[in-house]
Predict the 3D structure of the following.
Amino acid sequence: MHKGDVIVTQGTRDRRYPDLYPYGIPIGVVLTAGTSDIASFLTVQVQPFAQFDSLDSVAALVATKSMPKLP
């Protein structure tokens, strides 16, 4: 993950398990991404495309392997 990357919803890719949010809805753009000496996870700051005034935090899952493309 790098500055300028666009964050999108993951959704589910299996039609048997529909998700509330489908794949590919733009959420925001990465402002900064990095690690710290005390955290075992990546810290990312995202500039959202929408107003999320009522949220305190958001969790993002990042694939470490590339996902196969659907036909």
User: Anything to note?
Assistant: The beta strands are 6-8, 26-34, 43-48. The first strand starts at residue 6 and ends at 8. The CA atoms of residues 28 and 40 lie 23 Å apart.
